[in-house]
Amino acid sequence: MLRIAVPNKGSLSEPASAMLHEAGYRQRKDRRELVLVDAENEVEFFFLRPRDIAVYVGSGKLDIGITGRDLLLDSGSPAEEILQLGFAGSTFRYATRPGTAKDVSEFGGMTVATSFAGLVKQHLAENDVDASVVRLDGAVETAIQLGVAEIIADVVETGTTLRNAGLEIIGEPILKSEAVVIRGTGAPDDDPKVRQFLRRMQGVLVARRYVMMDYDIRVEHVEKAVALTPGLESPTVSPLHHEGWVAVRSMVPSKDAQRIMDELYDLGARAILTTGIHACRL
């Protein structure tokens, strides 16, 4: 069986399980369940702490896993990212009191507090900065107030928490993270079970980004219409019972669907419908 690590809690957990469910895999009903066997799909799921997943996958104990890019890089494990999943996006940045520093190049001799010590040490080394790193588990913004560090490095979404603590974001982002599928470095590229899993997950990603659009249009306007709805390969065009009319079916990006419908209507298209896509293979 394919052995897959899945986050058991936190911001990664529910979106990951939802995506796996959409991909046709069984998911646990009891959050206390740590191992789930999906015999029909020949997969065994292990629900682990998100921070530990890269370690298990990198050691070869598990075949692949879902975790955050930040957690993967922070772990230092011999594992690599093989698919971006498009959820749990975040930005990892430095912050400090106004006037302390403007850029990472000014951190020399200072102390940086963070929950991602490995990631920060690597970033400081890449910038040739000699600074100390203190690892804390959560609420790192209080480290400056309590005198533990002059700088913090943390996940930033809106920046409200930092501003409320009297801190300002400085320098360029350390990392932009999101949920990713990982495998051990050096694992074979041709594992058919891994390839099938990735196809399913890619199918969910495409299904979430596209809708199926159907409409009727006069034959003299077909070329202009299909220019608006080119599809992935090309649209399906079928003759209708009424002479001079055809039916067109095509996949279109869901974010553009309303605009495309307006333009098709102005072009003379009628009976314009959009339907969701639950799964696909490209």
From TrEMBL:
<protein>
    <recommendedName>
        <fullName>ATP phosphoribosyltransferase</fullName>
        <ecNumber>2.4.2.17</ecNumber>
    </recommendedName>
</protein>
<dbReference type="InterPro" id="IPR015867">
    <property type="entry name" value="N-reg_PII/ATP_PRibTrfase_C"/>
</dbReference>
<dbReference type="InterPro" id="IPR013820">
    <property type="entry name" value="ATP_PRibTrfase_cat"/>
</dbReference>
<dbReference type="InterPro" id="IPR001348">
    <property type="entry name" value="ATP_PRibTrfase_HisG"/>
</dbReference>
<dbReference type="InterPro" id="IPR013115">
    <property type="entry name" value="HisG_C"/>
</dbReference>
<keyword id="KW-0460">Magnesium</keyword>
<comment type="function">
    <text>Catalyzes the condensation of ATP and 5-phosphoribose 1-diphosphate to form N'-(5'-phosphoribosyl)-ATP (PR-ATP). Has a crucial role in the pathway because the rate of histidine biosynthesis seems to be controlled primarily by regulation of HisG enzymatic activity.</text>
</comment>
<dbReference type="Pfam" id="PF01634">
    <property type="entry name" value="HisG"/>
</dbReference>
<comment type="pathway">
    <text>Amino-acid biosynthesis; L-histidine biosynthesis; L-histidine from 5-phospho-alpha-D-ribose 1-diphosphate: step 1/9.</text>
</comment>
<feature type="domain" description="Histidine biosynthesis HisG C-terminal">
    <location>
        <begin position="207"/>
        <end position="278"/>
    </location>
</feature>
<dbReference type="GO" id="GO:0003879">
    <property type="term" value="F:ATP phosphoribosyltransferase activity"/>
</dbReference>
<keyword id="KW-0479">Metal-binding</keyword>
<keyword id="KW-0328">Glycosyltransferase</keyword>
<dbReference type="InterPro" id="IPR020621">
    <property type="entry name" value="ATP-PRT_HisG_long"/>
</dbReference>
<comment type="similarity">
    <text>Belongs to the ATP phosphoribosyltransferase family. Long subfamily.</text>
</comment>
<keyword id="KW-0963">Cytoplasm</keyword>
<keyword id="KW-0028">Amino-acid biosynthesis</keyword>
<dbReference type="Pfam" id="PF08029">
    <property type="entry name" value="HisG_C"/>
</dbReference>
<keyword id="KW-0547">Nucleotide-binding</keyword>
<keyword id="KW-0067">ATP-binding</keyword>
<dbReference type="InterPro" id="IPR018198">
    <property type="entry name" value="ATP_PRibTrfase_CS"/>
</dbReference>
<dbReference type="InterPro" id="IPR011322">
    <property type="entry name" value="N-reg_PII-like_a/b"/>
</dbReference>
<keyword id="KW-0808">Transferase</keyword>
<keyword id="KW-0368">Histidine biosynthesis</keyword>
<feature type="domain" description="ATP phosphoribosyltransferase catalytic">
    <location>
        <begin position="49"/>
        <end position="203"/>
    </location>
</feature>
